[in-house]
Specification:
The chain is globular. 43% of the residues lie in helices and 28% in strands. It has twelve helices and eleven strands.
C-alpha cells in the first residue's frame, strides 16, 4: 500500500498537480476622447450618419489573443443625449419622444454575456438596451492594437467592430410630434436597418511600470509599513477629505500595483481603508472586491461588487467582475499559490490511489473465482 501511495503521489506531482495558468486579464477603461460609436441609416434616398459622443465602459481582455479571449467581458454605457449627426435641429428631434426619448431613456447599454474566437478576431454576444427595449446582439471585433505599454505608464489597446440592428426592434419608429417637417412621406424613406461602427480605444494604468507618483507612494509604504501608511491616510482624510477624494484614482492604482506585485494583504488593507473612508464610491468597493478575490474569498468579493452596483447600477467595473466568466483571484488570473498546489496534489493522489485499490480488488476477485473453479473440478 505504501508503494502505491508513493507512486500516486509522484504521478500527481508530475502530471496532475500543476494548475495551468491561463493568460491574465487586464482591466481596460474605454477612452471616450479617442473612441467612436457611429451609425448610418438610409433616409431620403441617401444616408444619415451620426455618432454618440459620450461613452464609457470597462473591458477585460488578455494581453494577447488566443484562448484567453473567451474569458473577456465588457459593459459599455452611452449617454443617449450625446447623439450628434452634425445638425442641431435634427439632433434635437432625435432626442425627443419621436425617436430615442432621451429624457425617459437617458442611456444605451451593452452588456456582454459571452466571447468566442481567438487571435486578433473574436465575436462578442450580449444584450443591447435602447429606448426601454432589450435585445440580443452579436458583434464581431478585430483587435487593431494588442496590449501596448506606453512610456507614460499606461497600457493601450484598440478594438474595431461593426454590427447591424433594426431600429423598430427597439421601438424607434419616428414621428412628427416634435417636428412637423418629418411627415409620413419622409418617414417612409427611413430604413429599418442601422449599421453601427465601433472604434474602441482602451487604456489601463501600467502596474508593471508605474509612474513617478505611484513609485513615490510605494516607497512611502515600504518605509512606513502598511499599517502606518493606512493610519496616515485616515489622518489625512480627517484633515482634508476633499484632498483624499481627489487622490482616489492614484491611491487605487497604488493598491492594484501592490496586488500585482503579490503584496495582496497590503493592497487589500489600503483599498479597504479607502472604501471605508469613501462609502459612497462604487469604484472603491469594486477594488476591495478584486483584492478579496485575490485572497481566494469569492463570496466577499461578490458582496463588494454587489455593493458597488447598489451604489451605482451602471458601474461597468462591478458588472464585468461579478457577471463575467473571469474571476480576478482564480488560477487563471495568477500563478497558483502553494496552498492550491497542495490541495491539487492531494486530490490527484487520492483519485489515483482509489483507482489502484479498485483495480486491485477486481484482480483479487478474479483470482479467487478462478481458484474456486479449479478446486471444484
Amino acid at each position: 500500500m505504501m508503494r502505491a501511495l508513493l507512486g500516486c503521489l509522484a504521478s500527481a506531482l508530475a502530471n496532475g498537480a500543476t494548475i495551468t495558468a491561463q493568460q491574465p486579464m487586464r482591466e481596460f477603461r474605454i477612452d471616450a476622447a479617442h473612441s467612436s460609436v457611429e451609425f448610418e441609416i438610409p433616409f431620403m434616398y441617401s444616408h444619415v450618419r451620426g455618432r454618440f459622443d459620450d461613452v464609457r465602459g470597462t473591458i477585460l481582455l488578455p494581453d494577447s489573443g488566443g484562448a484567453g479571449i473567451a474569458s473577456s467581458a465588457a459593459m459599455a454605457v452611452i449617454r443617449t443625449a450625446s447623439i450628434n449627426t452634425g445638425s442641431a435641429h435634427r439632433d434635437e428631434h432625435l432626442r425627443s419622444s419621436d425617436f430615442f426619448d432621451a429624457g425617459q431613456f437617458p442611456t444605451i447599454i451593452f452588456r456582454s454575456d459571452g466571447v468566442s474566437g481567438g487571435g486578433r478576431d473574436f465575436v462578442a454576444t450580449g444584450t443591447l438596451a435602447i429606448h426601454g427595449h432589450v435585445h440580443a446582439v452579436t458583434i464581431p471585433f478585430h483587435i487593431a492594437l494588442f496590449t501596448t505599454h506606453d512610456p507614460h505608464s499606461v497600457v493601450l489597446a484598440e478594438l474595431t467592430g461593426a454590427t447591424i440592428i433594426a431600429r423598430r426592434d427597439f421601438g424607434i419608429v419616428g414621428g412628427d410630434a416634435h417636428n412637423p417637417w418629418f411627415d409620413k412621406l419622409r418617414s417612409a424613406t427611413m430604413g429599418d436597418s442601422v449599421r453601427v461602427m465601433l472604434d474602441v480605444h482602451l487604456w489601463a494604468p501600467d502596474v508593471d511600470s508605474p509612474d513617478t507618483a505611484t513609485r513615490a507612494m510605494l516607497a512611502s509604504i515600504d518605509s512606513l509599513g502598511i499599517d502606518s501608511s493606512v493610519a496616515h491616510l485616515r489622518a489625512a482624510f480627517a484633515r482634508d477629505s476633499a484632498r483624499v477624494l481627489g487622490a482616489q484614482g492614484a491611491l487605487d492604482v497604488v493598491g492594484q500595483t501592490l496586488i500585482a506585485r503579490r503584496r495582496v494583504r497590503e493592497g487589500f488593507l489600503l483599498l479597504h481603508a479607502l472604501a471605508r473612508l469613501l462609502p459612497g464610491s462604487a469604484d472603491a468597493a469594486v477594488s476591495v472586491g478584486i483584492a478579496n478575490a485575490f485572497m481566494d474569498d469569492t463570496a466577499r468579493a461578490n458582496t463588494w461588487y454587489r455593493q458597488a452596483l447598489a451604489l451605482d447600477s451602471l458601474n461597468t467595473r462591478a458588472y464585468v467582475y461579478l457577471y463575467g466568466r473571469y474571476q480576478a483571484g482564480a488560477p487563471s488570473a495568477r500563478r497558483p499559490d502553494s496552498r492550491r498546489r497542495r490541495q491539487s496534489v492531494t486530490r490527484a493522489a487520492t483519485r489515483c490511489l482509489r483507482q489502484r485499490i479498485a483495480r486491485r480488488a477486481v484482480a483479487l476477485a478474479g483470482q479467487q473465482g478462478g481458484a474456486g473453479r479449479i478446486h471444484g473440478r
